[in-house]
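Please check these two lines:
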Amino acid sequence: MLRKSDNGLAPRNGMSLVVAIVCRISGCVKQKELSLEDQEDNGKQLIGELYSGPAEYRVIATKGKGENLERPELEQIAAAYKSRKYDVFIFDDLSRLIRGGEAARLLGVGVDNGTRSICINDGIDTVEETWEQDALNACGENVAHNQRTSMRIKQKTMNRFKKFGATGNRAIMGYIVPEGAKTYADWQKDPQREAVIREGSRILRETLNGEAVAAYFRASGVPVGPYARNQNWNGTMVLRYYRNTLLKGFPQRGRTATVKHHASGKRTSRKNPKGPNYYHAPHLAFFDQVEFDELVILLADRNKHFRRKTGNGGDPRLEVPRKRTRSFGQHARCWYCGRHYVWGGNGITDNLMCSGARERKCWNSIGFPGILAAKELVKIITRKLFEIDGVDDQFRELVRQATSGGKEGLTARWKNLERDEVNLIRKKEKVKEALLAFGVSTTIAEMLAEIDKLEKLQAAERRFLESARERSLDIPMSPCELRQSLTAEFEKLAVNSLEFGELVRQLVPDMHIYLVRLCDGGHLLPRAKCRLDLLGNFPDGELVPGLRALLSADITIDSFEPPQRVRICNDVVRLTAEGLEQREIALQLAEKPTQTAVWNSLELHRRMKSLQVATPYQLISAPPDDYPKLRRHRHPQYRFEVLKGYIPPEL
């Protein structure tokens, strides 16, 4: 129970008590949003008991795991404490803030700034001398409770698996799971799939190639499992399927285990060092144990060189998420099909290629060197940073207007939000009238879903604007300060590092790769059209009207070394006009090209004149018939498919 302190509540502003109520639910299926309202009402009831004057309530409500230290509302709470605008913070219990010792530290931030914090169910009040000990004790109890609960659930589910083969109803291809099945004893083999599964095993044993089996499955119309994300078989899915020990009658549990990352509070899945537990279900076996194990060993030996390379006995990318990648990976898009580029293009580690080409849904299989493109991007950004000195006065004036108290950016967004909220209220009234008049229908259900989505977006916008109003804007005050900030980032980050990749995503929000070719023929060359946003790593730039537009531009990056005949073309044309012979020109140029290279350069210039073009490069919009290296579009499985909803930008 909360101790009644002799120190009563008093407003800082002398008028009304400003109260922040922090509410949180984990967001799992069993927790309802109504719980957030319960926590809010509990906080208001407490204030009503402790203070009889007028009070203003501001609610910070969120869904998220209590252990997650990267939740954005934690920064919002810390900023609110430091703003010294609140008189008291109310928590239902301390675990609603954070589950762990970090909660006590955040309460301390409030104490440092003269803001009282009350945790109702834990009996914590920071005006009491023992508040820190009380908070640490509550943190310990919360952690211990969750740890014991987790261990109890894990032990119970594993014990039931070992004894009865208890499992969830998540079937894979080849098995039938009757409704209400709770154990593997209730599962059945699908007799219609046994022949194709055994034939796939035979093909895999002969070829050790998962893609060959995937092609057979696709041709035979074999469906993927009901819970598969990818709706078409591919080599990776086939190999994962034939490594599943369920196929030999030994379903497993406990192959992976979660490990807490204490810096972020998140839990990641790792291979269990103790190994999985197995349950013998012979009626589910498609293969005998020896046959299955032999195939798995053959596959492991065949694919061992594709694993991550170890350094000094360890994984050099340990604890690095597989979804986190270097610059341009899963960021740059193919201009033709709209899919992301991925590292490892055409078997070259430092090259990127269109992921659609790998899936035979795009003909553009030309890769580009990522490190070269990153270095070229740094050069262009550096040049742009010096060019903005020409708009120094305009830059400073925009920042001055935004930070002088007016904050026109916030004002405009507040007006837009208020207008949208009024429009949403009208829309809700119309939907309510339609519901009463016509009853429930598919159209009305879609309208209700749209309204729910808009309400959530507006709530997020309001939370952001309230947070921005209580703090100073984090933006550079001049072009010089912006240049120093970005230059310092470039100097400390390697172009092939993950951190540089994250910076690139902020500075270059859009990047599309397309192909060009010299007008006299030759190789296809990758070129990138990018949208450069020099304020990309300053989120508050949106709050300064006109500043982001001033510091944004479309740029072009050539992700290739220009051919020699292009590099020397201007000098060759100039010296030819002066009357020099080709052999003499070759001797005068710094690159010391051959006479043939000089002649090729002149031919390129003549070709440009005949076509009446200013640049030697021409856009490639379809695979050229005279370029034999592009053959992917001739494969029988090739079907060009543009990513759903993708529209190529203008070049």
Q: What stands out?
A: The mean pLDDT is 86.
